[in-house]
Structures are given as C-alpha cells and as structure tokens.
Write a structure and sequence with these properties.
mainly alpha; coiled coil; Vps51
C-alpha cells in the first residue's frame, strides 16, 4: 500500500503522455489486469488485513493499526490514504473526460444501427416474397411445357440442319460474290467451313456438284492471290493476308518463300548494279606509269625539309563519280534499307505470324528462317565485295574523315540487320571489313611515312651535294683559322645541325600528323571505336606496332643499308649523310623513340593486352644503327684519306728523289681534310675526353732521330754488318708498346671519331711505306712529312701517344727499307715544316 501511495503521489506531479501511461498502469494494477487486458492469474490473498485482497476486513485492519502504530504513525497513514483516494478520484474523472467523445459517438452509432437494421428487415421480407412468387411461376411453366419439350428439341435440330444445307447450296454463289468484291479472306473462310462436309458427302450427286463448283471457284481465287503476290505492289498488310490465305489453300510454304525471296532478290540486285556502276575499273599499267611520271616531274626540285606536307608514292586512285561517303550512303539508304524491309516483311509473313490448325504442325518458321539466312548471306557477300572494292580505291592519305565517317555509317547500319536477324553472320563480316579497312589505312600511312623519310633523305643528299652547301667548305670555314683560311662560314645557308634539326622535326611532325589522322578511327562519336573487338587490337597492334614501331624499325634498317660495303649504296653515300644519320639514330635512342611511343600510348590509350615491342628493344636497335653508321663513317673517311696517302706513296720514286726542301702537298691536304672532318663531326657530336697533352706535343721528335747520340746509334745500326740488330731493337720496342686496334668501334664523341679516322689513315701510310724501297732523300722526305703530320694530328686524337707511335713506326719502317739510311737533322726538319 505504501508503494502505491508513493507511486500515485509521484504520478500526480507529472503531466502529459507519460503521466497518462502511468495512470493507466496504476488502474490496470488496481483492477488486476495484465498487458492484454485480462485479469492476471495470481493466487488470491487470504489475509484479512491486505487492503488489496478480496478478503479484506476493515475492522481487523483498524484494530491492527491501533495496536501496532503510534498516534503519529496513525496520522501519517491517514494522510497517505486520503492522498491516494483523491488521486484515484482525479484519475477516474480524467478517464471519463478523455473518453467522453467516444461515449457520445458510440451512442450515435448504436442508434443508427437500430434504424438501419429495421430498414434491412423490411427489404429482406420483400425479397423473400418475390423469390416465393418466382418459384411458383417457374414450377407452373415447367409443368405446362413438359409434354412439348421433346418436340421442340427435334424441331430445333431440323432447323439447324436446314440452315447448313442452305449454306451449302448457296456456297458457290457466295464464293463468286466474294471473288467479285475481292473479299478473299471471307471466301476462304466460307470454303474451309464447308470443305469437310462436302468431302464427307461427295458420293451424293448434289453435294458432288457443289464441291466441283467450289473447287473451280477456289482455283480461280488462288490464281488471283498468286498474281497479287507476284506483283508485290500491295501494302505489307495485304501481302501478309495474301500469304496467309495461300497457306490456308494448301499452297506449298516452301514455294511461297522461294517466290517471295526471288522477287526481293531482283529488286536488291538492281540496287547492287547501281552501286557497281559507280566503281571504275583500275587503270592500266601504262596509265599507272604515265601518272607516276607526271607526279615525279611535278615534284622534282620542289621538295624541301621545311615542307611538312605528306609525300606519298602511292598511285592516284581512279576518280569515281562519288566520294566514299556518298557511295556508302547510297548503299545504306538503298540496299541495306531495302534488305531490312525484306527481312521484316518476310519474318512477318513466314516466321513471326501465328500459325493455327494444320499449319502449326508443318514447322514453317524453321524452314523459312533457314532460307532467309541463306538469302541474306548471299546478297550481303556481294554488297561487301563492292564496298571493299570501293574502299581499296581510297589510296590517298590526305583527308581521312570521309573514310572514317563512311565506315562508321556502314557499321552502324549493319547493326540494324543484327537486330532484325539474330544469329546472322552479316554484322560480323561487316565488322571485319571495317577492321581490314582501318588496317589497310594504317599500312598506307606507313608507306607514306617511309616514302616521306626517303624523300627527306634525298633532299638532304641534294643539300649536301650543292656547292654552296658543301659541308667540307663550311667545316673549313668554321676551323679555318688553324690553316689560315677564312674566319667564318656564315655565307653557307645551311649547316649539318640545321639539316639534322630540320630532318628530325619534319619526320616528327609527319608522325604527329599521321597519328592525328589515324586517331579519327578512335573518336568517341564513331560507333565501332569503342567496341572491344576493334579498339584494343587496332590501337595496340595496328597503330603502335604496325605503324609507329614499324616506321622506327624502317628508319633504323634503311639507315643500316647505307653501311653496305662499296656497292650500289655504300660506295655512293656521302660521308656527311652517314654522320647525320648516325646522330639522328642516336637522338632516337636517347629521347625520340620514348617520346613517340609515349605520345602514341597516351593519344590512343593503348592497353598492352597482347605482346608489344618494348621501348628498350627499339632503343637498342636505334643505338646499334647509330653505332654501325658512325663506324662506317670513320671507315669511309679513313679510306678517303688513306687513298690520298697510298697514291702519294705508290706514285713516287723514293730511291731517286731529290733532297727535301718542303712538305709534300698531299700532307697539307691530309691535314686540311682532317681539320674539315673534325669541324664536321664537332657540329653534331660532343668533344669527348682526351688524355692530358704534354706541353711540347707539337715539337716532339721521333725515337729514330731524337738526339745526336741516337742518330749515331741509328746510323751504325743500319750498316750492312748488323741488319739483325736493327730488327731486334724494333721488335723489342713493339713488345713494350700498347696494341692498337685499327678498326675498333668508336664512341659517340668527336675525339673517338677522329682517333679512328687517323688510325686508319696512318696505318695505311705505314703499310704502303713497308712495300717501298727508299733512298737517303726518300727517308728524309718521310721524316719531314711525318713531323708535319705530328705537328697537327696530335690535337685531334684522344691519346697523342697513338699518333707518335704510328709515326715512329712509319719512320722506322722507312729506315728499314732505306738503302742509305742517313736521317736529316731535327733542326732542319723543323725549319722546313714551319716554312711549309
């Protein structure tokens, strides 16, 4: 009880929904109800002092309180009970006020229900009376007609039979009337209704006559339907109705399919003939030669490295009446559209049309579908052949947009055939044509790039061969102060670096132009560009490998061809061109190849699903070509100088020559050419690393005549009494000298190149000297020449000791081959060389 008092006091202090929930909870607790509104099943309390129990006794409760509680506790207990009573009264009033509207609404609802039920009772009484009357009338009618029911049924059957007989006898007239009105569907329907009956009673003369008349009329009707079907001028709906009626008249479905396709073939073949008329035959061989000659004559002398327009050696395509886009448009608008209409009509007539009755069991759709596939494949193959022939005429590599748009339209229209005829091979074959056309276009661009590259090399050769553009003259001008030549070569309009820069830039611009043209195949608005069967393979294998990589390999391979030994190409190739190409290939290896392939990959979003050529492989190939070209350049320049030295040695009588008074002109020419080559190589290659030079390099003397003591020993050593001692000293000297590899590969710098050329030249000079016999003055002339060469050549090589060693060998060999070895004084040699 105390707990309840506390709860009610707390509850009275609250307000809102929370207070109401607590009030309802207290009431449920007071009335002994659970959450479902049912009385909780709790054991009844038998204590008479339990104020909440059913056996509560007030007298006993009060007596107990008076015995056990003091006066103050009794007063508190009274106050608590008064508060609980007031709280419960307040809660009861609140519940009544809250549910007052519900009580009023319930009262109104009960009153209305009383009125409605009273009206319903009246209507139910009326309905019951009506049902009783109807039952009574029905029983009366059944009783009256019971005797005549059998007779009425018999008369109804006779009436139905008479109507059928009347229909049969009027059938020929009805069919003729339908034939006159061209109501073919009604005629066929009427005949189908009577056909079984006439067939069943055909043994009766009257029915036999009706059957014969009907057959004659239906034969005439079938003939008109066949004629209408062959004309094909009707609408699709009329044609569909015509085919359906012929099938209902037992016309062979296969024959109808063949007739329909035959008629359609004639119309489609006329479209193909119109397309074929627009394709001109290829020019004859003589016409091709004339066109090529005209092209060559029109372009001779007009080419320049600054002109980046595409240069192609492709033959001009035969001029057609229409361009490729108009041709494809006509093919799509006429042939492909007509083919789609034929497919749609055919499918509506023979495949998609619902078959009923006997027609459903003949598998007409399967047979018709097979014939349609054969028909479409046959005509599409002819159309594709014409399209490929027309695409092959597009030989020019100028504007690529028309071809791309034409292929896009061609591919897009074929997708309609794929939707109309699932399982057809036509779209796949059309896609193959698009891929082949794109691939062939890439091949044409590759051929154009190759032709442009070769034409550019021709322009370079012409520039090098022009007298004003002589690289030797420009080179001498650049370093002529060494020999007292002109101070500068600014009069020359073009130098090797300019030629190289122009050649490299023109090739790179041409590649970019070609990539831009090919990129049209992968534009976003082109339907086939995003297809996986096209884009991945085309970008990776078509553009990257077949175009860019193939062209880079072509540049390297064609450059290596210039390194052939003296023959058709190697013997006529200017050395400056070899040097320029070697630098071009080296630049490709260092930067250009990576730039081109990166540009291609970024522009075409190349995904390397299939194996592609790595950049390192191409760079290695370019470096190999550059190395081979530079080696060949060294060899060619070395042989040119060697040829001068060899002729100068072989054409002179060294035994009877006069006492030397000056340096031979050929030696001056050798120094001039070497200086020219040095300047030429320096235009394209860096200086390189040299060993430290001694301060008296230009004044150095050779071991054979370096001092008076050596001269005396030298003179004594070459007496006839001691020939073996001389050879022994020479051989011992060679043992302690480094081995010189004459034809070793050179490095990509000027010093290494010049060292290679000078090694070849001096080695040739040495070998020629070993084959000659010298007199005293001949030996002295060799001494003068070698000292002159030593004065200038040491500055071109990486190690001056190499020049000194070879010149020592030359003088030593001359001494060995001399009949009277009396060397010239060093001071005299220096005077002659300084004067010369």
């Amino acid at each position: 009880m105390d707990g309840e008092a506390d709860g009610t006091v707390g509850m009275s202090e609250d307000c809102g929904p929370g207070r109401r929930r607590r009030v309802h909870g207290m009431l449920k607790l007071y009335y002994g109800l659970n959450e479902e509104g049912k009385a909780a099943e709790e054991p009844e309390s038998l204590d008479p002092c339990d104020i909440n129990g059913p056996h509560f006794d007030p007298e006993l409760y009060l007596n107990k309180l008076r015995r056990e509680c003091s006066l103050a506790e009794l007063m508190d207990q009274e106050t608590c009970m008064v508060k609980q009573i007031r709280s419960l009264d307040s809660d009861m009033q609140t519940l009544v006020y809250e549910n007052y509207n519900k009580f009023i609404s319930a009262t109104d609802t009960i009153r209305k229900m009383k009125n409605d039920f009273k009206k319903m009772e009246d209507e139910m009484d009326c309905l019951s009376a009506n049902m009783a009357a109807i039952t009574e009338f029905s029983a009366s009618i059944s009783g009256t007609l019971q005797d005549q029911h059998t007779q009425i049924t018999k008369l109804s059957g006779v009436h139905t039979l008479l109507r059928k007989l009347q229909f049969l006898f009027e059938l020929p007239a009805r069919l003729n009337k339908c034939l006159e009105l061209q109501a073919y569907a009604q005629a066929v329907s009427s005949h189908r209704r009577a056909r079984c009956v006439l067939q069943q009673y055909s043994h009766l003369p009257s029915f036999k006559g009706i059957q014969d008349d009907c057959h004659a009329i239906m034969d005439k009707l079938a003939q008109e339907l066949r004629q209408k079907f062959r004309d094909g001028g009707s609408s699709a709906k009329d044609l569909s109705e015509c085919v359906e009626l012929l099938l209902q008249l037992d016309e062979p479905a296969e024959e109808l399919c063949d007739k329909f396709l035959s008629h359609a073939r004639s119309r489609l073949e006329s479209d193909l003939q119109g397309l074929e008329a627009e394709i001109r035959p290829y020019p004859s061989a003589s016409a091709v030669k004339d066109a090529s000659a005209r092209r060559l004559s029109s372009t001779t002398g007009a080419g320049s490295l600054t002109n980046n327009s595409p240069k192609t050696n492709t033959l001009p395509s035969p001029t057609s009446n229409t361009d490729i886009l108009e041709f494809i448009d006509r093919g799509c608008n006429e042939f492909v559209s007509s083919l789609c209409l034929v497919i749609t009509s055919y499918q509506e007539l023979f495949i998609n049309h619902a078959q009923t009755g006997e027609l459903a069991s003949k598998n007409i759709p399967q047979m018709a579908n097979a014939k349609l596939h054969v028909f479409v494949d046959d005509l599409a193959a002819r159309y594709f052949s014409l399209v490929e022939r027309r695409i092959q005429e597009e030989k020019g590599v100028g504007d690529n947009s028309l071809l791309v748009r034409a292929l896009d339209r061609f591919h897009r229209r074929l997708q309609a055939v794929a939707k109309l005829l699932p399982g057809s091979t036509v779209p796949n074959k059309g896609t193959e044509i698009v891929i082949r056309a794109a691939t062939e276009r890439v091949k044409q661009y590759l051929s154009a790039l190759q032709s442009f590259y070769m034409d550019s090399l021709t322009d370079v050769r012409q520039a090098l061969a022009t007298p004003r553009l002589s690289v030797a003259g420009a080179s001498v001008a650049g370093g002529g102060s060494l020999l007292g030549g002109p101070a500068s070569g600014r009069d020359a309009p073009t130098s090797l670096p300019e030629l190289l820069s122009s050649l490299s830039a023109s090739i790179l611009n041409q590649i970019k132009s070609v990539l831009a043209s090919v990129h049209l195949f992968t534009a976003k608005d082109i339907t086939f560009s995003n297809k996986p069967y096209f884009k991945g393979e085309f970008c990776s294998q078509g553009v990257r490998e077949s175009l860019v990589v193939s062209f880079i390999k072509f540049v390297c391979q064609s450059s290596r061809q210039f390194c052939e030994s003296a023959g058709d190409k190697g013997g006529s190739t200017p050395p400056a061109l070899l040097l320029l190409l070697s630098r071009l290939c080296l630049d490709y290896e260092t930067s250009t190849i990576s730039y081109i392939l990166t540009l291609t990959d970024e522009q075409f979003l190349v995904q390397h699903h299939s194996p592609v050529t790595p950049v390192t492989t191409l760079c290695a190939e370019a470096r190999e070509a550059a190395q081979k070209l530079l080696n060949h350049y060294v060899k060619v320049q070395g042989l040119i100088i060697s040829q001068m030295l060899r002729k100068s040695v072989e054409t002179r009588d060294w035994v009877n020559t006069i006492e030397p008074r000056n340096v031979r002109a050929v030696m001056k020419r050798v120094v001039e050419d070497t200086t020219s080559i040095d300047v030429q190589v320096g235009l394209l290659y860096e200086e390189g690393v040299r060993k430290a030079h001694s301060s008296d390099s230009s004044k150095r003397t050779f071991s054979v005549y370096s001092s008076s003591r050596q001269q005396a020993r030298y003179a004594a050593s070459y007496t006839p009494s001691a020939p073996m001692d001389t050879n022994l000293l020479s051989n011992i000297h060679k043992l302690f000298s480094e081995r010189i590899d004459i034809f070793s590969s050179v490095e990509f710098n000027k010093v290494s190149v010049m060292t290679g050329i000078i090694k070849i030249s001096l080695k040739t000079f040495l070998e020629c000297v070993r084959l000659r016999t010298f007199g005293r003055y001949g030996l002295q002339q060799i001494q003068v020449d070698c000292h002159y060469l030593q004065m200038y050549l040491w500055r071109f090589v990486s190690d001056e000791n190499l020049v000194h060693f070879l010149l020592d060998e030359i003088v030593g060999s001359s001494a060995h081959r001399c009949l009277d070895p009396a060397p010239m004084e060093q001071s005299v040699i220096e005077v002659i060389c300084e004067r010369g």
